[in-house]
Design brief:
By secondary structure, the protein is of the alpha/beta class.
């Protein structure tokens, strides 16, 4: 199996992007998948949420992006088996300016990741809340995009902009990039607007929207202050259960895709064998 690289992207802040990246990476590690979480957000919340405050980050993704260190030198072991981290730095906020004149700057992360692919089954990238150079790097390096979407009034408008960006990256930088799915977050069934947004999103995007929804849950908000993913801080809270189910749903999509690819490969091989026999008989 080749390494799957999942960019967790939304240009709007406060939609549960980092919470999703941290808890999904933890859930994948919990089922024995070798997992790496890359923190590309200058706020560094994913790093803090896994027990690495800024004062304890010796080397960061900023140093790696600028080419000052190699990716393996930035990796740190978390307290969670099978889960490693590339911590972030506040200096990432200056990357757009510092790499402005660099040729091939959109491919820096992809090139660095080549050194790690053999060691991981899944790599999650927590992107900054913007569509700048760091996010473009993540989309260029990724095999798939996961979009956390808050159930609010402007959700579809922002989603349209993001999907246009993904399409541009597919066209010019990464033609094999796919959309893994859209995860509805901060879901509140008591709110009429939540139900309306969910209906609109599902009507527009159909099966691209995951069945699992992540509810508003105070335990999800508390967990980072204890330097733990929510599914470790309180595995039985509604938010944690939602991320566990979402992880299962994502893995099921990958399994289904793998089966389809294997069937297509077998069919192609059979058709080629049939053509060769026909040519021999002729």
């Amino acid at each position: 199996m080749s390494t799957e690289i999942i960019a967790v992207v939304n240009q709007k802040g406060g939609v549960g992007k980092t919470t999703s990246a941290v808890n999904l990476a933890t859930a994948f590690a919990a089922v024995e998948k070798r997992t790496l979480l890359i923190d590309l957000d200058a706020q560094g919340n994913a790093s803090t949420g896994l027990g690495f405050p800024e004062s304890e980050r010796v080397r960061t993704t900023y140093d790696m992006i600028l080419g000052q260190v190699r990716l393996p030198d930035v990796i740190v072991k978390t307290g969670i088996p099978k889960l490693d981290l590339l911590p972030a730095s506040i200096n990432l906020s200056a990357v757009d300016v510092e790499l402005a004149d660099m040729s091939g700057r959109e491919f820096v992360l992809k090139q660095q990741l080549q050194q790690a692919l053999a060691n991981y089954d899944y790599i999650f990238i927590d992107c900054p809340p913007s569509l700048g150079l760091l996010t473009v790097n993540a989309l260029t390096a990724a095999t798939a995009v996961l979009i956390p979407l808050q159930c609010e009034f402007y959700a579809l408008e922002g989603l349209s902009h993001l999907l246009n960006t993904v399409a541009l990256v597919q066209k010019g930088l990464n033609p094999t990039l796919s959309i893994l799915g859209i995860a509805l977050t901060m879901y509140d069934r008591r709110n009429r607007l939540t139900n309306e947004v969910e209906k609109d999103v599902r009507d527009c995007l159909g099966e691209q929207v995951f069945e699992t929804v992540v509810p508003r849950n105070v335990r999800l908000s508390e967990a980072p202050s204890h330097s733990k993913p929510a599914i470790i801080y309180d595995m039985h809270c509604p938010g944690s259960r939602a991320y566990i189910f979402l992880a299962k749903e994502i893995l099921a999509r990958y399994t289904a895709r793998t089966v389809a690819e294997e069937q297509a490969a077998r069919q192609a091989a059979q058709e080629q064998a049939t053509k060769e026999r026909i040519l021999q008989d002729a």
